[in-house]
Amino acid sequence: MPISIKKAEKQGIHIFSDWAREEGWNPGIRDLDAFYPTDPDGFFLCFNGDEPVGCISAVKYSEKFGFIGFFIVKPAYRNFGNIAYLLGSHAITHLGSCNIGIDGVLELVENYKRLEFKYSHKNIRFEGLFDYKDLHKISANISTFSKKDFKSILRYDRTCFPAKRTAFLKKWLSLGTDGQYLYKNNSGEIEGIAAIRQCFNGHKIGPLFANSYEIAEELFLSLKSGRKGPIYLDVPETNENALKLAENYKMKQTFATARMYNKRIPNLKNERIYGTTTFELG
């Protein structure tokens, strides 16, 4: 049967989450509520005849930056023709002249390099088990998000992400997550932002951006407080204090990805990034 790639329509977008769950990626229960509206033209399905056999997302944040994720081929078709190549090529072509980011499989780094992706660093997923009855007293400097904070949130987020992501954060901080906090100094300036979401197993924190270890720790403790099940945090190896945070709370590494870019490695405030937002959209 002929192989074809088509834009995924909203009613079929659940496949991305279903397959990610089957791969053991443990997506957030409401991830796609935030992911899809960010760029409805950036989700694709590969078909063998009428059967969906692969998926990929290529979300364009701006004319200069995009991110590829959800790169999945059904197991039965992984040695069938060149489906993975077709999906990857389609996503790269869709993003055109953008600098493209990925969180790739470590074992395939050399393959990505052949596609001109440059290795930046590892993002390491940590898992921690905590007593949900051990409630943390929230600092007076920590507050929940409000609409009046949104412009300040965007400015702060931009120091930790390669593009302004207005559409994504509007959805992420309302539909995609179920706990969100800001840390403001005594002058009312934002010095940290963080969110947590329920997953099919436990909860994931992301993002966790902060000006210092102490602020990151306060946000981390506030978010995990009262949550049952495992807590996950995706830590970039470029931030030693972030690794220290995971170590100090006896979190264990479960796996890692290779953050790569096909044009240039962005100049970000890596010392603020204690937890990446997602592996799928960056």
What's the short story on this structure?
With 282 residues, the protein is α+β, with helices and mostly antiparallel strands. The chain has 8 helices and 13 strands.
Low-confidence spans: pLDDT under 50, at least 5 residues?
A: none
CATH architecture of the largest domain: 3-Layer(aba) Sandwich
> Can you tell me the number of structural domains?
2
From the N-terminal CA to the C-terminal CA, the straight-line distance is: 34 Å
Which fold name fills CATH's third level, the topology of the largest domain?
Aminopeptidase
Total E-strand runs: 13
Strand residue content: 25-35%
Number of helices: 8
> So what's the overall shape?
globular
What is the SS-derived class?
A: alpha+beta
Q: What's the SSE pattern?
A: EHHEEEHEHEEHHEEEHEHEE
What's the overall average pLDDT, rounded? 95
Measured as a percent range, the helix fraction is 25-40%
Q: Mind telling me the C-alpha Rg?
A: 19 Å
Report the top-level CATH class of the largest domain.
Answer: Alpha Beta
Sheet having the most strands: 13 strands, mixed
Question: What's the SSE blueprint?
Answer:
Layout: E1 3-7, H1 14-22, H2 31-38, E2 43-48, E3 51-60, E4 65-73, H3 83-95, E5 99-105, H4 109-114, E6 118-128, E7 142-143, H5 150-158, H6 166-176, E8 179-184, E9 190-198, E10 203-210, H7 213-224, E11 231-236, H8 240-248, E12 252-261, E13 273-275
Parallel strand pairs: 4-5, 10-11
Antiparallel strand pairs: 1-2, 2-3, 3-4, 5-12, 6-11, 6-12, 7-8, 8-9, 9-10, 10-13
